[in-house]
Amino acid sequence: MIALIIANGDDVDKSLIKNMHFDCVICADGGLGKAERLGVVPNIILGDFDSVEPSVLEKYRSMNVEIEKFPTEKDYTDMELSIEFALKLGYNNIILVGATGGPRLDHSIANIMLLEKYFNLGVNIEIIDNNNKIQIISDNTDLYLNHKENYFISIVPVTYLISGLTLEGFKYPLDNVIVKRGSTLCISNEIIKDRGRILLNKGIALLFVSKD
Predict the structure, then answer these.
(1) CA-CA distance, 122 to 8, in Å (whole number)?
(2) Quick check: 109 and 179 in contact, CB under 8 A?
(3) CA 20 to 30 Å from 119, out of 13, 143, 201, 207?
(4) What is the predicted pLDDT for the residue at 211?
(5) What per-residue confidence (pLDDT) applies to 72?
(6) 3-state SS class at 106
(7) CB under 8 Å to 145, separation ≥6 — which residues?
(8) How far apart are CA 192 and CA 171, in angstroms?
(9) What pLDDT is recorded for position 156?
(10) Could you say which residues of the chain have pLDDT below 50?
C-alpha cells in the first residue's frame, strides 16, 4: 500500500497525480491548498496550520476529514510528522509531492535527507515533482531505467563512499568504480540506449531522474 503526502513546496501538475497509484492521502499543513487545486480529497490533514487558509481547513473539517493539530514550536517538521503518521497507519511505501521548491531551501534539503533516514528504517520513500524523481539506491542495487528524451540521471553518494558502481547504456558508462561523497562524477549523465542499467555493490546514494 502507498501513502501520498502533499506538502507546501512547489505546485505539481495534475497529470502527475493522475498517473499515480496511492491508497491514502496525507496533507502536511499548507499542502492542503495544493490538494485543493489538484482536486484531491485528503484522508488526513496535519500540522501547526501556519500556512493553510482557515476557510479551506474548515471546509474539510465539515467533511469530517481527520485533522491532527500540532504546536508551532515542535521538534519535527510537518513533513516528518506526516511520514510518522503514515508509518503508524502501516504504510512503508510513501510518495512525497510538494516536498521541493518554494522559498525555503532548507526545507527542500531536509525533505531529501528524510529519504536516507527512513530508508535505514526499512521505509521506501520517493520525492516527485514536475521535473524530478528522487529515490534511494543502496547495497546490491540492480536497476533498469527506460530512456527518456531530455532526462538526466544523477547519483549522489550519501555514505562516505559507494563502491562497485556500474552504469550500462549511459553516455558516460562506469565499470565497478568507487565514488566518494562530495564527488560530482555522477552528475548529469544520460541514457543513450533503450534503457540504462545501474548496479551498485555497496553504499547508499540518492538517485535523481531529472527533466531538463
Answers:
(1) 26
(2) no
(3) 13
(4) 94
(5) 79
(6) helix
(7) 153, 191, 195, 196, 197, 198, 209
(8) 6
(9) 98
(10) none
What is residue 62's DSSP assignment? H
CA distance 31 to 8: 4
- The 10s digit of each residue's pLDDT in 141-171 is 999 999 999 999 999 999 999 999 999 999 9
Average pLDDT, the chain: 94
The packing angle between helices 105-119 and 78-88, to 10°, is 30
Q: How far apart are CA 161 and CA 62, in angstroms?
A: 51
- In this prediction, residue 103 carries a pLDDT of 77
Task: Residue count of the chain, please give it.
Answer: 212
| Cα angle 51-53-58, degrees, rounded to a multiple of 5 | 125
Q: What percentage of the chain reaches a pLDDT higher than 90?
A: 77
Which pLDDT score, from 0 to 100, does residue 18 have?
A: 84
User: Pick from 84, 98, 90: which is nearest to 6 by CA?
Assistant: 98
**Residues 6 or more apart from 58 whose CB is under 8 A from it?**
none
Residue at 82: amino acid letter:
S
User: DSSP code of 53?
Assistant: -
Using alpha carbons only, how large is the chain's radius of gyration in Å? 18
